[in-house]
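dumping this here before i forget
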Amino acid sequence: MIKFVCAKDYDEMSRKAANVISAQMVMKANSVLGLATGSTPIGTYACLVERYEKGDLDFSKITSVNLDEYKGLTHDNDQSYYYFMNDNLFSKVNIDLNNTYVPDGTIEDSAEACAKYDEIVRATGGVDLQLLGLGHNGHIGFNEPAEVFPKGTHCVTLAQSTIDANARFFASKEEVPTQAYTMGIQTIMNAKKILMVVSGADKADIVAKAFFGDVTPNVPASILQLHQDVTIVGDEAAFSKIKDMI
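structure:
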């Protein structure tokens, strides 16, 4: 079941998404949160930090597992997703860093890296709430369009459209990693609740395709139509193609 929550703009989208995560944390202080990177969740993390600073949220018992990491980047690389999470959330709240997990991009052996991360996710007891963004080609995490839905953590060769989209964060397109470790679709679908944030008119077409089109691995996010508890928070621009359907 998918619930659509429309916000007027990015800031309101961020606040409404933070409301969902805050409610989860209040209901269950030791929640396991699946976290995402990219530009869209930054505002949501900022709202959570603000609420922590006001004394409204406590991260001390929270465990986090991140969706993905570039292969080959160290934690201290300012383009790594570990660095992103530390910069946008972990260093600003009272979360125990020993309870924060991101795939280890420095492990060269893909099978080893992926098996290790799957075991970490299993050991947490399962994700209570998974935060997702939405790629222009429908990818979630780094699960790119494919012939099948990948199950567990795996190494993926990034689509050119994804590399192009991420190039703005690097000094040059040549520096963008071409591979990443990412949670699989089955792992994402095993989360008890899923929260997606989506913003901007450039996402309107893929929102309509993913959630009102066929369920197909060619549009990875379409699998969310089969999950029992999905909330999609988007701004008016992102929802402009589906406003008559929600």
